[in-house]
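Re: that chain you flagged

S.,

Sorry for the slow reply, it's been a week of failed gels. I finally had a moment to sit down with the sequence you sent. For the record, here it is as I used it:
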Amino acid sequence: MKKTFMGVRLRRLREERGMTQVALARALDLSASYLNQLEQNQRPLTVPVLLKINAVFGVDVQRFSDDDEARLITGLREVLADLPAGVGGEGAGDAVSLAEIRELAAGMPAVARTLLALHQRHRQALERLDALGSQWGDDRSGASAMPTHPPMAY
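Prediction finished late last night. Pasting the structure tokens below so you have them in one place:
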């Protein structure tokens, strides 16, 4: 069975609840030292701890699932592959290693989700721009169906 290190997610849960490490450790009947090790990814998050989190806070344990991390990794790889060359290095997809993508997804999932959301908004904006260009007769080749007027002299 794969060890699951979810320290960032555990810390985020604690911060969302406005709790200190000591308070969360007491609520979960753990030592503060052990909780600190979990948050620092020095120890894996175990099933008994996940069950305690669910029992105490009613949090869906899927929040700590590897499936979410796998989706983030896939999404981030797609985003990077979609970047034009020259952005972030030679070939944009080659500029960030898979190990770095995995570390981002595991260690900073909220940042990864934000990047995916930004990319999605970027794609939607491009689609709207293309639709507006079609509506105005812009074929994106520099030619436009709109007549051009000489600049006005004031």
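What I noticed first: Residues 66-136 form one domain.

Talk soon,
D.
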